[in-house]
Amino acid sequence: MTKHCVPFLRKAENPHILTLSPPINLDPRWIAPYIGYTISKYNMSLMTLGWAEEFKKQNIAANSLWPVTTIATAAVKNLLGGDELVNRSRKPEILSDCAFYILQRSSKTCTGNLFLDEDVLKAEGITDLDQYAVVHGGDLQRDLYVS
Predict the structure, then answer these.
(1) How many separate domains does the chain show?
(2) Which residues contact residue 61 at a Cβ distance below 8 angstroms, ignoring those fewer than 6 apart?
(3) Are the CB atoms for 134 and 87 separated by under 8 Å?
(4) What's the CA gap between 74 and 17, in Å, rounded?
(5) Can you name the residues that pair with 127 across neighbouring β-strands?
(6) What CATH number does residue 64 fall under?
(7) What digits encode the pLDDT tens for the residues 54-112?
(8) Is residue 145 part of a domain?
(9) Domain encompassing residue 93
(10) How far is residue 144's CA from residue 22's CA, in Å, rounded to a whole number?
(11) Most C-beta atoms within 10 A of its C-beta, which of 4, 8, 75, 85?
């Protein structure tokens, strides 16, 4: 899909590619028990880094974003942990807010990053992250790929 978007991105004022993929950590504890999922996610992270370099001269940014905690999605509820895990998660709005902030940054200078959501918000001066919790003040579940 990215290949087909590049002609349009070249015409944009501030073009960005943003993937949802984690920072790369080659510790075997992430790879061994979840090899298929890890390969698919790290593949997206590697593509992000490759695109950042490939499109740098065209000022097309490529970055990724990943949550520090689990996100209250249907997959988390139906496949991973039911309502209990949803209640220990953050709302999807945290990622949409982070995407907004990343996409406002200059594509000329903000590229090749594997961002964590908390870091993006802190850079924007947002320190009260409890607003994103499904249960305010609750114990949050860290995401699988965040050590």
Answers:
(1) 1
(2) 15, 16, 17, 52, 55, 105, 106, 107, 108, 110, 111
(3) yes
(4) 25
(5) none
(6) 3.40.50.720
(7) 999 999 999 999 999 989 887 876 667 678 878 889 999 999 999 999 999 999 999 99
(8) no
(9) 2-132
(10) 10
(11) 85
